């Protein structure tokens, strides 16, 4: 990418690129990237990496127990990107028939990678396409179409590496947010001292 570009789409990527460089990552050219992905240029179907977790039932009054790292989607709100990965703290939670649940096939799909992937605009677009219906909220996702969705995905090892990088970035963001909140509190206290005259400044103190 030409970082001298002034396009917003390019400029917005610079902080992420700088973080990757600090972590020791280097660029791969197009040929190297294609080789590492097994020369794969076609989409991967979700059915190749997901396994249906809950049994098909007709009863609407039964609930299912979800486990950490399960993927589940709300068929009534999928078009609004209502899709998520179960967190450890939600282990044992109950889900209705409106939340079809899937587990990742070993060495095919990494749950930590998909925590980020399902938030991408392309996922929202795909879920919108398979949720037919009229105006308002009367749009129900097709379960059979969901599992047939295709995306260009990296191999499992690369998914793992990508997830680790993004998790590291998230941790740094959280640290910065915590620091910012502490600075806000310090500023609030300082304003109270200065603006009420409890603390005085002489010219040249700043």
Q: Gyration radius, to the nearest Å?
A: 23 Å
CATH superfamily: DNA methylase specificity domains
Structural class call reads alpha+beta
**Strand and helix order:** HHHEEEEEEEHHHEH
Strand adjacency order, main sheet: 2-7-4-5
Strands, count = 8
Total domain count: 1
**Assembly state:** single chain
Low-confidence parts: 55-60
Structural overview:
Helix 4 crosses helix 7 (156-195). This protein is 39% helix and 10% strand. It has seven helices and eight strands; from the N terminus they run H-H-H-E-E-E-E-E-E-E-H-H-H-E-H. The strands form three sheets. Strands 2-7-4-5 form a four-stranded antiparallel sheet, with helices on one face. It has a two-stranded antiparallel ribbon with strand order 1-8. It has helices spanning 8-11, 14-22, 30-36, 111-117, 121-129, 143-147, 156-195; strands at 44-45, 50-52, 64-65, 71-73, 83-85, 94-95, 101-104, 150-151. It has 206 residues and is of the alpha+beta class. The chain has a single domain (8-186), classed as Adenine-n6-DNA-methyltransferase TaqI, Chain A, domain 2 (Alpha-Beta Complex).
